[in-house]
Prior knowledge:
The protein has helices spanning 6-15, 22-39, 50-62, 71-78, 94-100, 113-125, 138-141, 162-169, 187-199, 240-243, and strands at residues 82-86, 105-110, 131-135, 151-157, 173-183, 202-211, 218-226. The chain is an alpha/beta fold.
Amino acid sequence: MSDLNPEKLNELLKSIGISSEKRQLCQFIDYYKLLVEWNEKINLTAITDFEEVCLKHFTDSLCLIRMYSSFDGLKDAFSGKTLCDVGTGAGFPGIPLKILLPDLSVTLFDSLDKRIGFLNTVIKELGLDGIKAVHGRAEDLARLPEYREAFDYSTARAVAALPVLSEYCIPFVKKGGTFIAYKSDVSEELSLSEFAITTLGGKLTKKESFFLPGTDMNRTILFIEKIGNTSSQYPRKAGKPSKQPLV
Length: 247
């Protein structure tokens, strides 16, 4: 842990058009330290090398900037808005987005209570305000009045196939909001997802495919706009979306 050079992360962020402050870079370093420390106790990530975490977790989470003309455009779109990160795991992309966009209100959802303990520690140690971690399954949380169709944005990264992910995430988004899906190759998933997206009140409005900086690792970000309210029958009871996807 001796060579945790924040400049390495700074250069990565610059390469995708993000300018960060010293305090934010220090928060990312502290986040990394906690990730490695807690990873020895609970399974958070298979990636623990500093430079790989900076690329494959931090930068990957922030590649959302590619959907906007500039970093200022990204900040303007999310300032004062609400976002829930479904199946956040170790906090990706929710915590990196919160660090870079302090005016964004973030709610982290995860079904494993031990991960919630880690997330709460990160939030406290990094001094983050306007962010909380909530324990529960997406299928159950999306039926609670305080969360159902309550957010401007929902996000999910590497959680499930798109038809399943849509049923997890779209019910959290208010009409006029956006579900943002972080995926790798979605060429096959997209055609299988049309029914689910439409049924849940969504519409695919933007798709951006790219490679992580300096690699051949393909990534795709999808914007699915909420154009209609989600029927009260969705999401179905816990476990059913993954066993019987809406296709």
